[in-house]
Each structure stands twice: as structure tokens, then as C-alpha cells.
Request: fold
Amino acid sequence: MKIIIPIVGSFGKSGGFRVLSQLANYWIKDGHKVIFLSYINAVDPYFPTNAEILYYDNSGDVKEQKDNNHPKAFLGVFQLRNALKKALNRLEADIVLANHCFTAQPVKKSSINARKFYYIQAYEPDFYYHKTIKDFIFKRISKKSYKLGLEIIVNASMYKNYKEIKTDKVIFPGLDLDVFKPLTINKDSNKIILGTIGRLEEHKGTMYVVEAFKMLRKKLGDKIELHIGFGEKHLEDVEGIKVLFPNGDQKLAQYYNSLDFYICAGTIQLEAIHYPIIESMACRVPVITTGYYPSNDDNSIIVPIKDSISLEKAVIAAINEPEAVELRNEVASNSVKQFDWNTISQNMINYFLR
Reply:
């Protein structure tokens, strides 16, 4: 099959782009042709892909080479969506896979003779929460994208019947279990290292982890540290916090393995799948979290949202109950086997072939 994955704008560093790159890589390995259709002055993919990349300009013409000097779209995402639709009209494919609310309408309205799917990796209206005209418009676009009539596939069971989303098709994000696994790391046995992936957005919960750490630091002193992956450098103003940038999956796996506990304090869509959770579990790093599939009381420590005190207590309990932690780790390592990329990529192809 020939599969086109369109992008409004540029590739990014979020987990959703890793999913797209890996799906493409595994589909190509199985003999399919995959093309990313990206804006002409976009950055190169952060997550490596073997897929071909074609580029569209402001007029919707398709080019084989990108052009960093191409004039930016004056009307921003609105002009890009129209250009993307025109570009799709000029191409041929068996499958077009919309993957973001901004790509859904161009895919739907394009005249390309292909089956049109929409892979939803999050309920995007929740991300447009600022009281601005821009967020108001983008929230409306994202809500309407779920009602366009595309064949919807979601990445977690919670989205099968969630607000505007209705579908019976679920494909989890995958995980490279040959990379994310227990590694031998030289650790200071006198230190307790906590970790979290830092994000500015309030719903990611980084602030609650930092507040819990401050309380732990007062109790345990310099024997405890917090290593924040991809966090803001100013967080290092807090004594005991280090900000790290483990770029690439190999470095990221080493980061998780360097931790004694991983903490996730997200506040929304708690039954969704959150990459740091499954990556930590695959590395047999104990997880303390507010939720996210496949977390449960058997494989992690679950705490309430927006509650730094509960986070602090959970860390103390985990330190004092190593046997219970090890039992949860054993369950967690089995919980993540379902995310193997070979299975995930083939399951998506099976939907395409129905």
C-alpha cells in the first residue's frame, strides 16, 4: 500500500511524532510505501524515519526538496491547511492518515482517491484552554475535526466514546522494547534519584512534582535529588534539581535507568497513554503517577491529581517498602509487552485493509 501522512507545518519533538515516524518505519519494513507530506520550510524530523518526505508550498505545489527561504504562510495555519488540501489533490495513495486536528479538514476536503483515516492521539480541545481568540478558534477546529466523517482510530480505549469522538478502532502507541529495557547504570547508592519529564503546561503537573520534591528535600536532605528531563533551566535554582536533555531514545532509556523512581503528575485525560509511564515501566523503574494506562494499583503507586503532599507521601512509602515496589515492577514489566511496535504497526495495517 501507499500511505501518505500529512503534516500542517513542521515535524515536532512530541511523542506523537515519534509514533508517526515509527509506524512509517515498520510499515516500510513490511513492504509498504510511506510518504510524509510536510510544509516546504519545515525542520527535519526529530525522530528518525525511513519514509520519503515531500513538501508543499504556499500554493499547494508539491516539491521534492524543502526550501528554508520560502516565504512563510501569511495567514498561518489557515493558509497551510488550504495549501495542504491542494497538495493532496495532486497526489495518489491508498491511505491518507490525518493525525492532528489541523490535518483533518484538508484530508477530508481533498479530492485524492484514497481511504481517509484520522489517528487521534489525544483529545486536543483540552490543550486550547487560554482565554484568547486564537485558542477559542483552535478549540472549535479541533472539536469539529472529530465530526468530519473520517475513519477514526484512537490511541487509547478511553477515547472510543469520549465527548465528540466515536469509534471502535484503537491502536496504542508503540514501544521499542529492545531500547527501553533495564540497563546497567553506575548509581550512587547513597542517593535517591527521582525523575520526571518537565513541561511548562499546567496540565503536565511538573509544578506539583517540584513542590513535592521541596518537601522531600527538607526531610531527607541532599541524599535525594530530582532530575527533570527536558525541563526549563531555571528549575535548577531549586537546590537538588538537575535539568537534563537526554536526546534520542538511547539516551532517554539511560535517563530512566538512572532513576530510582519516576513521577508523573499529569492532571487530565488520565486513562490515556503517556509515553514516560510505559518507558519507565519497560526499564523497570518504579512509577508514581496520577494515572495513565496501563497504570493501576498492581504496577504503580497511584496518587490524586494536583496534590503535592500525596506525591511526597508516596515517595516516602516507596522508599520504605522496597519489596512492594519490586512486586509492582514485575507486574509493570509484563504490562508493557502489549506495546511492542511489531504488533502495533500490523494492527493499524489490519484496519487499513478491512
